Amino acid sequence: MMSLQACQVVLLLVCVTATVHGAIHEIKQNGNRYKIEKVTDSSLKQALASLRQSAWNVKELDLSGNPLSQISAADLAPFTKLELLNLSSNVLYETLDLESLSTLRTLDLNNNYVQELLVGPSIETLHAANNNISRVSCSRGQGKKNIYLANNKITMLRDLDEGCRSRVQYLDLKLNEIDTVNFAELAASSDTLEHLNLQYNFIYDVKGQVVFAKLKTLDLSSNKLAFMGPEFQSAAGVTWISLRNNKLVLIEKTLRFSQNLEHFDLRGNGFHCGTLRDFFKNQRVQTVAKQTVKRLTGQNEEECTVPTLGHYGAYCCEDLPAPFADRLIALKRKEHALLSGQGSETERLECERENQARQREIAALKEQYRTVIDQVTLRKQAKITLEQKKKALDEQVSNGRRAHAELDGTLKQAVGQIELQHATEEQSPLQLLRAIVKRYEEMYVEQQSVQNNAIRDWDMYQHKETQLAEENARLKKLNGEADLALASANATLQELVVREQNLATQLG
């Protein structure tokens, strides 16, 4: 024990081992920095309790590289001055709620399996790459934030709540699943945002305009954008911008960028030559673009994937009579061909290259944040990961069984409602479904037959009615003619009567 105290005093390093339920954890100290190794879910509370007397002194706590699958803010409540918490390279799952840690400034959560994250008002730096995060909540705070969420499941900027989008200085959302971006949703960071990374998403549309007064870098490379519209005036003051490997056809010719622009990369697009001619009337931007291509490739122009394409400035382009329509038709045809398995070899290879490039970026990101972990801990992490996957699969199976039972009940109810013959309790849902479909088809045929007969009867009735109307008109006409003839006969008779009377008078 004396040697341990001497180690604390002289080296400010503590090595404590404890056996709890068969697990051994080690605690190392360097001033107000503490690192706990070889700790598990079952020994975590004991390990943290062993620091309780020093809790007031703990500003940095490192729990990285352990097989922890769960941790709560309550476990860390005694550490009232905690500013940095490192939970990277564990196996944390589902929701992680650290909102009550009001002094926490830096959180490292890289390389876990977290789906939802809640942090407190003092957070300044959040590292949470390589998770499954689809939602982040930040308590309102006054400080600037740096948020790194590369390789997660974010689908839109609003997946970060209003607190997380306020006073952000660096926002990294590379390798997520975003398809549209509205700059207006970052309005609360208009005077703080300096770096915005949206590389390798699926963005096809950019909306909203905000004046980002301090924005220096904007990376929208490897997305699906077809139009660099007026919304990009939000980034007018940048010094570095990349929209490489998109589907760009047109650029808003009124866009203007700062005289401080140093990097402008638009390689790997499908421009209409006319839009480049109009846009690059700004000689300053064209010069920067050429310098960027020269610096990155060693060539004055980018290499075109299709040899027949021309160039304007440093970029490949093509004269298109109807730029958007032509590109849209081509993309839709390619999409249909690939989905139906009828795409050309060139199109298939292009699709594979895009996917492989994304996978390489993911692999590089995981390697970048890789933590050296001993084999025992790796095996424990693998075991917990498999257990979590088994749990998820069990839930899927359970949900599937419930859905199967509900479907079975619904089908049998349908059987009773339509009085289906030859349906038995032993039949599988698939057999019942086929029988029900067949019965409904039969009922449809019967109904169609009844409907056709009714239509035929109606047509016959309409025909008879037409005939009767025509006959009535004919009879009415004949009746009129008979009335005229009768009137004429009456007049003739009256005239004869008068003549008869006159003759009688003369003879008398």
UniProtKB/TrEMBL annotation:
<feature type="coiled-coil region">
    <location>
        <begin position="348"/>
        <end position="399"/>
    </location>
</feature>
<keyword id="KW-0175">Coiled coil</keyword>
<feature type="domain" description="LRIM1/APL1C-like dimerization">
    <location>
        <begin position="322"/>
        <end position="507"/>
    </location>
</feature>
<keyword id="KW-0433">Leucine-rich repeat</keyword>
<dbReference type="InterPro" id="IPR001611">
    <property type="entry name" value="Leu-rich_rpt"/>
</dbReference>
<protein>
    <recommendedName>
        <fullName>LRIM1/APL1C-like dimerization domain-containing protein</fullName>
    </recommendedName>
</protein>
<dbReference type="Pfam" id="PF20733">
    <property type="entry name" value="LRIM1_dimer"/>
</dbReference>
<feature type="coiled-coil region">
    <location>
        <begin position="461"/>
        <end position="488"/>
    </location>
</feature>
<dbReference type="InterPro" id="IPR048481">
    <property type="entry name" value="LRIM1_APL1C-like_dimer"/>
</dbReference>
<keyword id="KW-0677">Repeat</keyword>
<dbReference type="Pfam" id="PF00560">
    <property type="entry name" value="LRR_1"/>
</dbReference>
<feature type="signal peptide">
    <location>
        <begin position="1"/>
        <end position="22"/>
    </location>
</feature>
<keyword id="KW-0732">Signal</keyword>
<dbReference type="InterPro" id="IPR032675">
    <property type="entry name" value="LRR_dom_sf"/>
</dbReference>
